[in-house]
Amino acid sequence: xxxxxxxxxxxxxxxxxxxxxxxxxxxxxxxxxxxxxxxxxxxxxxxxxxxxxxxxxxxxxxxxxxxxxxxxxxxxxxxxxxxxxxxxxxxxxxxxxxxxxxxxxxxxxxxxxxxxxxxxxxxxxxx
Length: 127
Description:
Elements: E1 2-6, E2 9-12, E3 17-24, E4 31-38, E5 45-51, E6 57-59, E7 67-72, E8 77-82, E9 91-99, E10 116-117, E11 121-126
Parallel strand pairs: 2-11
Antiparallel strand pairs: 1-3, 3-8, 4-5, 4-9, 5-6, 7-8, 9-10, 9-11
């Protein structure tokens, strides 16, 4: 499984970005996909997650209503739309994937639950 993020950059507070994660995996419909971030001097934290074959999504409280996770089936890409960005959103954003064919009722939100990771993309929000 390979993951490659793109779309990071430098923006001002209140602006938007869209992050993309290209996923190379067999039977992608059996995977859960997540976004995590690590800000300067901070621990890695969960941002959002979804199952490729479902509509269930989860978000970290501070991004609810501002960030949206979705997928582009035609390009095997998971997207993270970041709206109304704040300086506290500054971080390296990582895409993660985990094979979850049997855990239909559980959507992983902890980093240890994900085996596959991308290299990360930097998001910097200036005030």
